[in-house]
Amino acid sequence: GEMERIDLPPVGPTDLPLSLLEMGCSGRFELITHPQPNDQPLYPQSTLPHGLPPTSVGLETEVEKRFLRDPAWLPIHDTDAAFHRLAERDVRVDSLLHCSSSPLHSGISVVRDPTTGMLLDFTEVLLGDTGISAKNSMSLQRPPNPNPSESLRGSNTNYPFLPGLLTVPPGLKVGMDFSDKGLNGHALREKTYDSPSTPGTPSTEKKDGGTTKPGEGHEERKRWAIPVDITSPCDDFYKRIPNPAFKYPFELDMFQKQAVLRLEAHESVFVAAHTSAGKTVVAEYAIALSQKHMTRTIYTSPIKALSNQKFRDFKTTFGDVGLLTGDVQLSPEASCLIMTTEILRSMLYNGSEVIRDLEWVIFDEVHYINDAERGVVWEEVLIMLPDHVSIILLSATVPNAVEFSEWIGRIKKKHIYVISTAKRPVPLEHYLYTGNSTKTQKEMFLLLDPTGNFQTKGYYSAIDAKKERTSKHAQSFGTKNASQKTTPNQDRAVWLSLLHFLSQRQQTPVVAFTFSRTRCDDNARSLASMDLTSSGEKSDIHSFFQKSLSRLRGGDRQLPQILLMRDLLKRGIAVHHSGILPILKEVIEMLFSRGLVKVLFATETFAMGVNMPARTVVFDSIRKHDGTGFRNLLPGEYIQMAGRAGRRGLDATGTVIILCKSGVHDMGELHVMMLGKPTVLQSQFRLTYTMILNLLRVEALRVTDMMRRSFSESHRDTQAHEQQIGQLKQTLSSLPPLDTEGQLSDLLPYYYTVTELRITAEALQCAVLGSVNGLKALSVGRVVVVNNKQHFNALGVLLQVSSDSVNRTFTALVICEKGNEEGGGDSPNASAFPHLYNTALFLPDGPCSHTVQKLKLQDVSAITVKTLKVIPDRIIDNYNKRQQPRFRLDPPGQAISTATQELLRLAEANPGGVVTLDAVNDLQLKSVDVVEGTMRLRLLQDSLKDFNCIHSPTFSEQFLRVQERMSVQEELDKLLFLVSDQSLSLLPEYHQRIKVLQSLQYVDNSGAVQLKGRVACQISSHELLLTELLFENALSPLAPEESAALLSCLVFQQKTQVEPHITNTLQEGIERVLAVAQRIGELQRDCGITQTAEEFVGQFKFGLTEVVYCWARGMPFAEIAQLTDVQEGTVVRCIQRLDEVLKEVRQAARIVGDSVLGSKMEKASLAIRRDIVFTASLYTH
């Protein structure tokens, strides 16, 4: 009766603080039961994959529905009554409990009689992989994504497909290796040598015909990359490929045939060849093959412009081609997709459905992996590609192609055939040009002939030609200063005379590489008097120009840059660099490839572009600024640019000309640049937050695995290490056991103390020797204590000190027992280091003898305070003389016997040990290491006296055993460390970055990705800053155009001199961004990352805020260009990339559930997507 009287307060909204939160992205939920603070909203709905549980439809919509079905049903005057009529709905709670049926876990199979086919029985069969989906499995067996919009790019809640082989099951710390060590390993090893090789090329068989033994590790390891011999003829090519997937109108080169054979066998290849050699053939064949096999190919290139050009080329060849770049998406269902590497990376991380059907991925211009900023993307993509995809790598000639392919082969577990050719279809001739007037315009001197011989004759003729016109001063002082600035008028004279000369000799079209944008523009403008086109060509150029720009709005066609370029183009001159408007660049490229542009002033980017060869290439200078300072061109850069000379099928040779404006360049520098090795492929792998978060959200992938597989760690030869570890473990187990009973119980601690003492003493000795005072002390006549195999605490006197500072040796006279001059009687306990605790000096039992020998630094265990007067030359001569057989029995000379007597007298006077020089007090070495070392040394020496084991009769032999055992153990520990994750060079940085992510709450302490981390996964660059801005609502006070202007700081990278004029809210926004950046920068600093906060904040440049703001508000481009000193092309590129950022922010806002921000970004995007900035590329139409 008492129980019922408890009054419960009415249930309020705070009583059941339950909410569901999706954990990670695998479809698991967690019930959150701790009460929410009242002011804080519930977690946003969209962290649930299907939104919140269903609720009933609003009354308005239902009334509306009834009304539309039957207008008479709704009374006109009293609409409220209609609502009341609807209010009595029947509530069905169980509708909330409805859930879709889970997939069947088993099926039924029939058992039949094998002879009659009669049904005998039914058995239940378990089905594997039933509950898997893109949200919880990396298997290729998972059902395709039902959502068509996600199937192309994937979604950031998808798991990626499994890259490579898993050795560790998800959730376990270590894996199992089931391969049978004995037999299989051997059989496997045999198999890899019978790799299918082209007739005529012996495959990598062992020369002696034997199989490989584990010891011959080298042969064994080199097995992933297989260099293909391209000199051997391939006569049966057409027999082996009777109906090729793609027929070429010309006979293929050797290297192309080899590559095609490999592709037919579905092998991966690495093709390194010069630009014009025809690597595209390999790519085309792969695309044709995948069309034949009904699979897909992805072609990636480093640069967007390159993707566009390739799209046009392949579209004309194959038809079924799509293009995906940051802002364009054309026919994504095509069998060949062209994209930038970044997009492929996000497709891999987001588990795109395209990956299932992928047969080939073609990486063009792989040498771009050296790019400091973006090189890491290539490595990520190569590591993340699943097993069934074959890889084609196309690259300029690189010296370490085999090493690079070896790395890829090893992480992908497949053979990579390396096909490299240095042959140029059109050989090059390199000239120096010294002309600068009509009179001297023919002064062109051959420096390097097509066969690659350096002509010094030409070099000296160029110097002479230049000499005739230089001042007396330059003649006498040579022309070291070739980098002197020349005046614009001198430049103009050089260009005019050169171009007249070349056009007379019909050497056009010419590409003139100039390493600054302003120089390009100035050079082109200075040629106002030149006209290189005929009237027919002029009308062609005019009509093409008008047609191409017809898509622009009227005002945009009158932009100053366009008008200027139109005048230049009519005269056959053009400029190509990043400051030129993209559409104008494309017009110029197309006119150039049609031979209508006769002279093109271009920067280095043109050489990265698609195959646009010219007749002649001219280098305006051979020095460029690489962002830190001026330097000469690297051989790789020079080859890449010079390789634009010579059009296949049109020119017999290509001409490369280096201008000598102020003087002839240094011969050595020219030689290195023309004939040096091109740049090696080097890993630019670094950790990025996006990479870490993307890998953390999938349990089966570990960041350390990614690091271990990166090219920067490719020197880790784990296989060989594992082998050595096995051998060492065996050795350890075969060693005799240690006797550590009784007196010997402290043998191991003794060993450790002695080892430390030895190391400390050696370090101290090195410090002494490296110091001035130490060397002064170790001079002729100094008495030292000697300890080595032969001597134990013997006194010696120095006679000579070698001058070699690296391995310094000392010649000394040392006293010894009679009969032990040769060191034959090896003292039994030499290796037990007794001198470390026993300072008693050596006194000969019988008569005292002596020996003169060279001592190493380790042999001198102490420097005493005593010196003797000696005559070194006499002693050494006398000793050497008495080493000869016939003077063997002569008595020692006066000098020697005096010295020996003196040493003996010293030893007898101080049997307990002579006073030694102290490094700190006597030699004045005051550095911390030395002071600490000396103190440590004293401590250790004192502690040695207290050990019991040294009194044991079997001490020395037991000590030797310990030593042997320990040296094996140390070696083993070293190898185990090298194989473990602990030795990864980036591991410390990884822990630092995780710390940053934890303190910003992107991941929790167990490493599970939180909401903020999920948002950051969506963002490809500056992910921390953008995510922080989102979560701090920094964009909410801004109008759409202001937020676009603010975010421009993430994509604009140049310096600008113009101060932008902006609204107050924008100014506050900028300050807020800087404050957040400062906060992140300082946090990174605190977590140990090397970048300073200033550097971090300095990445964000606000020079274009005003420009973007005005553009988003609808100001025409012509007026915008007036607001800034940044060139038009850069502005356009910047706004295009800004659009991609806005897209990412919109996606992120969707994840957070901030619809206001999402629609604001949508508006901002629409505001900037107009006119000249977003005209479609000419290549894609």
UniProtKB/TrEMBL annotation:
<dbReference type="GO" id="GO:0070478">
    <property type="term" value="P:nuclear-transcribed mRNA catabolic process, 3'-5' exonucleolytic nonsense-mediated decay"/>
</dbReference>
<dbReference type="GO" id="GO:0003723">
    <property type="term" value="F:RNA binding"/>
</dbReference>
<keyword id="KW-0547">Nucleotide-binding</keyword>
<dbReference type="Pfam" id="PF13234">
    <property type="entry name" value="MTR4_beta-barrel"/>
</dbReference>
<dbReference type="Pfam" id="PF08148">
    <property type="entry name" value="DSHCT"/>
</dbReference>
<feature type="region of interest" description="Disordered">
    <location>
        <begin position="135"/>
        <end position="156"/>
    </location>
</feature>
<dbReference type="InterPro" id="IPR001650">
    <property type="entry name" value="Helicase_C-like"/>
</dbReference>
<dbReference type="GO" id="GO:0003724">
    <property type="term" value="F:RNA helicase activity"/>
</dbReference>
<feature type="compositionally biased region" description="Polar residues">
    <location>
        <begin position="194"/>
        <end position="203"/>
    </location>
</feature>
<dbReference type="GO" id="GO:0005524">
    <property type="term" value="F:ATP binding"/>
</dbReference>
<dbReference type="Pfam" id="PF00270">
    <property type="entry name" value="DEAD"/>
</dbReference>
<feature type="region of interest" description="Disordered">
    <location>
        <begin position="188"/>
        <end position="223"/>
    </location>
</feature>
<feature type="domain" description="Helicase C-terminal">
    <location>
        <begin position="519"/>
        <end position="696"/>
    </location>
</feature>
<keyword id="KW-0963">Cytoplasm</keyword>
<dbReference type="InterPro" id="IPR050699">
    <property type="entry name" value="RNA-DNA_Helicase"/>
</dbReference>
<dbReference type="Pfam" id="PF17911">
    <property type="entry name" value="Ski2_N"/>
</dbReference>
<dbReference type="InterPro" id="IPR027417">
    <property type="entry name" value="P-loop_NTPase"/>
</dbReference>
<keyword id="KW-0347">Helicase</keyword>
<dbReference type="InterPro" id="IPR016438">
    <property type="entry name" value="SKI2-like"/>
</dbReference>
<feature type="domain" description="Helicase ATP-binding">
    <location>
        <begin position="260"/>
        <end position="416"/>
    </location>
</feature>
<dbReference type="InterPro" id="IPR040801">
    <property type="entry name" value="Ski2_N"/>
</dbReference>
<feature type="compositionally biased region" description="Basic and acidic residues">
    <location>
        <begin position="204"/>
        <end position="223"/>
    </location>
</feature>
<dbReference type="GO" id="GO:0055087">
    <property type="term" value="C:Ski complex"/>
</dbReference>
<dbReference type="InterPro" id="IPR011545">
    <property type="entry name" value="DEAD/DEAH_box_helicase_dom"/>
</dbReference>
<keyword id="KW-0067">ATP-binding</keyword>
<dbReference type="InterPro" id="IPR025696">
    <property type="entry name" value="Beta-barrel_MTR4"/>
</dbReference>
<dbReference type="GO" id="GO:0016787">
    <property type="term" value="F:hydrolase activity"/>
</dbReference>
<dbReference type="InterPro" id="IPR014001">
    <property type="entry name" value="Helicase_ATP-bd"/>
</dbReference>
<keyword id="KW-0694">RNA-binding</keyword>
<protein>
    <submittedName>
        <fullName>SKI2 subunit of superkiller complex</fullName>
    </submittedName>
</protein>
<dbReference type="Pfam" id="PF00271">
    <property type="entry name" value="Helicase_C"/>
</dbReference>
<dbReference type="InterPro" id="IPR012961">
    <property type="entry name" value="Ski2/MTR4_C"/>
</dbReference>
<keyword id="KW-0378">Hydrolase</keyword>
